Amino acid sequence: MSDKNYSDSKKIEAIQNLTLMNDDFMTIMFDENYSLVEYILKTVLQKDLKVIKVITQDYVVNVFYKRFIYDVYAVDAEGVHYDIEIQRSRDGASFKRARFHSSLMDSRLLERGEKNWDKLLETVCYFLYRERYL
Known about the structure:
Strand 3 (81-87), helix 4 and strand 4 (123-129) form a beta-alpha-beta unit. By secondary structure, this protein is of the alpha+beta class. It has helices at residues 8-16, 23-30, 34-45, 95-109; strands spanning 51-62, 65-76, 81-87, 123-129. The protein is 33% helix and 28% strand. It has four helices and four strands, in the order H-H-H-E-E-E-H-E. Strands 1-2-3-4 form a four-stranded mixed β-sheet, with helices on both faces. It has one domain.
């Protein structure tokens, strides 16, 4: 549908409904936006850190499972790798899913055949969702 088919009021309504919970908007807002990702991680983790890498919608392909997409993949100056998953609700934001996400990060961080587990870097998987969890 072309832009001329939308009235000004429909455009305003669409803009007012944009939040970071909207996948397309989130992707645009976070992509290479180091200061925003850094702010969120500092706020959530209560940790002083410096983000040095941000990728949105980062694909992981493996022959043993379906294609996997990180919403936001970030790395801080200390080498800690972060997966930030944006969700509208906490459904699916389980500890086992976080463990799966972390295992995927781990599998990307070691060279093939590496047996020195001390080289495995720290990873953090965080689910950010609209609902407040108590």
